[in-house]
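Filed under: proteins

Residues; backbone shape codes:
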Amino acid sequence: MDSRGANPLKDSALIFELHGIYRKVKPDVVLHYTIKPNVYGTIAAALLGIPVINNVCGLGTVFLKDNLVSAIAIMLYRLSFRFATKVFFQNPDDQKLFLDRKLVPAEAVDTVPGSGIDLTKFKPTSFKRNEKFTFLLISRLITDKGVIEFVDAVKKLRSEGVDANFQVLGAMDPLHKRGIKVDLIAEWINTGIIEYLGTTNDVRSFIQNADCVVLPSYREGTPRTLLEAASSCKPIIATDVPGCKNVVEHDYNGFLCKLKDADDLAEKMKAMATLPEEKLKEFGTNGRAKMEAEYDESLVINKYLAVLTELKQAS
């Protein structure tokens, strides 16, 4: 399975590969996650009469562009999702889009709060503002995550004399169709525009050492990095787009900025950096409360268990 590729003819071979696996394993139910398993895995399972539960964790570029590949992908969604027992969406905007376009039967849909968040793993630490305010972007380095806008905002802030740390944590992916070239990232690092932290298997210490987590993404399902930051009592800044705006309530647990607008992002970051400690604490406390009320991973687990129970009783 090529996570970077977007060739439906090539990817359709996954139907036969997954069909062979499902026929051998003989599962009672298949749970799919992400675009290609959702589409091709559902078709493979349907051919064998195996129930399917899908999770639409983000739309990728299929709905951000209008071209032949997108048209084919939408057609495949409409074809495959007819056979799904349940299709979970991670935000109401994505669910509405699928229903409006008649890509999924209305009786099959439900929403879950992303993948949920482990509130015991991502927990608050005692508040301590850094001497030099520290912004942290956690993301794969591709354009869709708003990395270019983040860097342009940082350049603007530095030109205005804003003295802060601007950190980036995440893998480079130059082979991705929308990946940022390594030479350009090296230029950002060498000229001191950003501090590149590389990659990690545990983001908690990096989140705890930041004052604010930023994600200027173009669209999300439910961005896990924002859930982790909010659960850790950190203020957050994100774009006013589906997925992000469900996690960030403007002026409650952070700020929302305009899509693909580095100037507006810079304004929001400058505003955040100049907030008094009490306001930063308030944003953090509000974010934690929102996670506890809406995004506890047990909410996701219970919805899956409920569907599995229904399938077991029906069998």
Notes: The chain has two domains: 8-116+297-314, 134-291. The beta strands are 30-33, 52-56, 86-89, 109-111, 134-138, 165-169, 195-196, 212-215, 236-239, 254-257. DSSP finds 13 helices and ten strands in the chain.
